[in-house]
Design brief:
By secondary structure, the protein is α/β, with parallel strands linked by helices. The protein has two domains: 147 residues, Nucleotidyltransferase, domain 5 (2-Layer Sandwich), CATH 3.30.420; 151 residues, 2-Layer Sandwich (Nucleotidyltransferase, domain 5), CATH 3.30.420.10. Helix content is 43%, strand content 26%. The strands form two sheets. The protein has a five-stranded mixed beta sheet. A five-stranded mixed beta sheet has the order 8-7-6-9-10, with helices on both faces. A hairpin with a 3-residue loop joins strand 7 and strand 8. Helix 5 packs parallel to helix 7. The longest helix has 27 residues. It is elongated. 37% of the residues are buried. About 3% of the residues have low confidence.
C-alpha cells in the first residue's frame, strides 16, 4: 500500500506548550492524527508527528510504501543523513556530546525500518495545501491544549483566585485608522463582549486598549489567560516589555519604544493579576477570537462610516 503523509509540529513559545499533527492520505480515505504536550520543543513535536504517523500505519496496515513530507530540516536530515553516524558512535554527535532526543530518534528509526519511507523536505508556508493544512492542525492542537490546561500561577501568585479568559480582536483602516477593537471576557461571573472604536488610531494601539479595558473589568486578582493573534500584544506583554523597562523604554536598536504610555497603562492594569499571554496562529480561529474579530471589524466599519459622514457634512 502506498500512503502519502504530511507531518508538522511546533511550540509557541519554544520551549513551551506544543502541538503536532499528521495527515495520512490513503487511496480511498484520509486519517488525521493530532496531539500535544504542555512542555516540549519544536523539534520534539516534529518528531512526535512522524512517530505517530508511522506507528498508526504499523499497527493497522503492516509494511507500507510511504512518502512523508515535512518542513522540518531537523527531522528530514536527522533520519536520512545523521542517524547512522549517531548509531555508529553510540548515540554521540560528532563533537562527542550525547544526541538530543535520543529516545524519540530510536523510536522513529525502529518504526521507519518496518516500512519503505521516502522522506521529503518541503518549504513551510509556501503554498503547499497539505503543508498549510497540517500547520493549522498543529496550531489548533496547541490551542486546545492550552485552553484545557492553562499555565499554573507563578509561585508568588495567590492560590484559589478566580480565573478569566480574554480573547481580543482588532480591525483598522490603513495605518492611522479609523479602527475598532473587541474583547470577549469569560469569567466566573459572566461572559461579556466589550468593544470600542476610534477615529485616529493604529492596530497596535487598539490591541493595547482592548487588553487594558478587559483587564479593568475584573474585580480583584484573577488568573487570566489572554488570547490574541498578534505577536505585538502577545510577545510584547510576555517577553519584550521586560527588556524595554530594563533599557528605560528603549528598543534593542536604541530607539524609543512606541506607545510607551499605553504599554505602561497595560502593565498597571495587569499588575494585580497573574496573566498568561497566548498567541494563536492559523485558521480556523477559536470561537471567541473569531467573534471578537468580527465585532472589531463591525466597529471599524462603523467608525469609517462616521468619518465619511462627517466629511460629507463639511461641504
Amino acid at each position: 500500500m502506498t500512503v502519502t503523509v504530511y507531518t508538522d509540529g511546533g511550540c509557541d513559545p519554544n520551549p513551551g506548550p506544543g502541538g503536532w499533527a499528521a495527515i495520512l492520505c490513503f487511496p480511498d480515505r484520509e486519517v488525521v492524527l493530532t496531539g500535544g504536550s504542555p512542555n516540549t520543543t519544536n523539534n520534539r513535536m516534529e518528531m512526535q508527528a512522524a512517530i505517530a504517523a508511522l506507528d498508526h500505519l504499523s499497527a493497522g496496515h503492516g509494511p507500507c510504501h510511504i512518502d512523508l513530507h515535512t518542513d522540518s530540516a531537523y527531522l528530514c536530515q536527522g533520519i536520512t543523513s545523521w542517524i547512522e553516524g549517531w548509531i555508529e558512535r553510540g548515540w554521540s554527535a560528532k563533537n562527542g556530546e550525547p544526541v538530543k532526543n535520543r529516545a524519540l530518534w530510536q523510536t522513529l528509526y525502529d518504526l521507519a525500518r518496518g516500512h519503505q519511507v521516502r522522506w521529503h523536505w518541503v518549504k513551510g508556508h509556501n503554498g503547499d495545501p497539505l503543508n498549510e493544512r497540517v500547520d493549522r492542525l498543529v496550531q489548533q492542537a496547541r490551542y486546545e491544549l492550552v485552553r484545557e490546561r492553562p499555565p499554573a500561577p507563578s509561585p508568588e501568585a495567590l492560590t484559589g483566585i478566580p480565573r478569566a479568559v480574554i480573547s481580543i480582536g482588532v480591525s483598522c483602516w490603513g495605518s492611522t485608522g479609523p479602527g475598532g477593537w473587541a474583547a470577549v471576557l469569560r469569567s466566573e461571573r459572566a461572559c461579556e463582549m466589550l468593544c470600542g472604536r476610534q477615529a485616529h488610531t493604529t492596530s497596535n494601539l487598539l490591541l493595547l486598549q482592548a487588553a487594558i479595558t478587559a483587564l479593568g473589568e475584573l474585580t480583584g486578582p484573577h488568573d487570566v489567560t489572554v488570547y490574541t493573534t498578534s505577536d505585538y500584544l502577545g510577545l510584547g506583554a510576555s517577553q519584550w516589555v521586560h527588556g524595554w523597562r530594563q533599557r528605560d523604554w528603549v528598543t534593542r536598536k536604541g530607539e524609543p519604544v512606541k506607545n510607551r504610555g499605553t504599554w505602561e497603562s497595560l502593565l498597571e492594569a495587569a499588575r494585580e493579576h497573574h496573566v498568561s499571554w497566548q498567541v494563536v496562529r492559523g485558521d480556523p480561529l477559536p470561537p471567541d477570537l473569531a467573534q471578537a474579530k468580527e465585532r472589531a471589524t463591525e466597529g471599524a466599519a462603523l467608525a469609517r462610516s462616521e468619518e465619511v459622514g462627517e466629511g460629507s457634512g463639511a461641504h
